[in-house]
Amino acid sequence: MKLSERFIGKGQWTLFFLVSFFVSMILMSVFLLVIGINFFVALLLGFLVFLGISIYALVKAYMFFYNAYPDCKDMERRRFFSVPEKHAALVEINGVYPEKPLHAGWYLVFPFFKFVTFSQVIFLGDFNGIIFDGSPENKVDFKNGISTPVEAMYVAHLYSGPELGTDLRAGDSDTEDIVSILASMLDKKKTEIRSLGLVTRELKSLILDNSIKRYAKEENADSNIREMLMSLLRLTLGSMDSDTARGDKIDLAKLKKEDICVFNSIIKHYGVDICSVNILDIVLSDEEIEINRTEYKSKMDIKVAENKKEVAIIEAKAQSESLEITSEALRIQVEKLVSTKASPKEVLEYLMKMEQWKALKATDKSIIVENGGSLAGILAAIKSVNP
Predict the structure, then answer these.
(1) 127-283 homologous superfamily
(2) Which of 52, 124, 129, 331 is the one with CA 20 to 30 A from 35?
(3) pTM of the predicted model, to two decimals?
(4) How far is Cα 21 from Cα 291, in angstroms, rounded to an integer?
(5) Domain spans in the chain, listed from the N-terminal domain onward
(6) Is residue 129 within 8 Å of residue 152, measured between CB atoms?
(7) Residues 277, 152: contact at Cβ < 8 Å?
């Protein structure tokens, strides 16, 4: 950057130095000569006065941002004397913005009479914005009749145009959108934009400068951008069930597919390119909480009932199996055999083939066998066992 480009308000600076030189070197020297001071001494004093005024003006000019923008501070809360890295400054010269914003570096802004006044310093990196803050005032009405607060945000930066080397003469729809945006931002016809051919660094720099000026001139840019995104997101979510909205990925690509014109309008009017849209939370409404609580209770009741049923079946089966191996069951079987006039040996052979017999303890089996000489002995032995 040339030294002359560091002086903001060149016309005022030129006039200031000319007037200061005239007053200090000519009028003051003439006055000193009139009162009898040596010519060379008068000339030297006039030059020193001119030098002092100039130094004072330059110091004030260098401190312009420090005095004019007290909120522009780094992480250590230090204020800047110049435009910080990744920032751009806008000043007004006689009520008009200069051709280009002031990018990172030092400048000498004309400090007197407020011919040059400060506008603002704009951050050139990614910045966040709130769409829905999750408060009850920002509810979304879903298709299934649920109305609940939503928390969502966006990430954006100032638009600097398409990638380097992009051919503006291509006839596809994406290129046409870019041409339309650039024509609006640069106040040119579409044919003029296409004639530029490939995107160069100079063109990207020009686009960024225009984005900075558009964003700075619109005092309510952030608020308007939020309203546009809020409206689009409200319509998109409103066409879905609340559960579906929680499960589906609603991101920038989906919203652009819904209405690309919203994002193109934000670039055209405010010089801001939306990088991403993120839904952080869709709060459960009171109705949904009650529905979920009821469903959960029903599931738990069913599970408890099923568990009780399984326990009852197990107990019944256990009781049934227990009855099968009791001495009473064996006694009944023996009595039935006795009624058929079976012999003690046949009774024992029959018992040994039954499942009940296998379930008895070895000691019980031996007692029954030892008393197997008679039917009465078998029955008496069965009554004495404890399965």
Answers:
(1) Band 7 domain (3.30.479.30)
(2) 52
(3) 0.66
(4) 84
(5) 3-122, 127-283, 325-384
(6) no
(7) yes
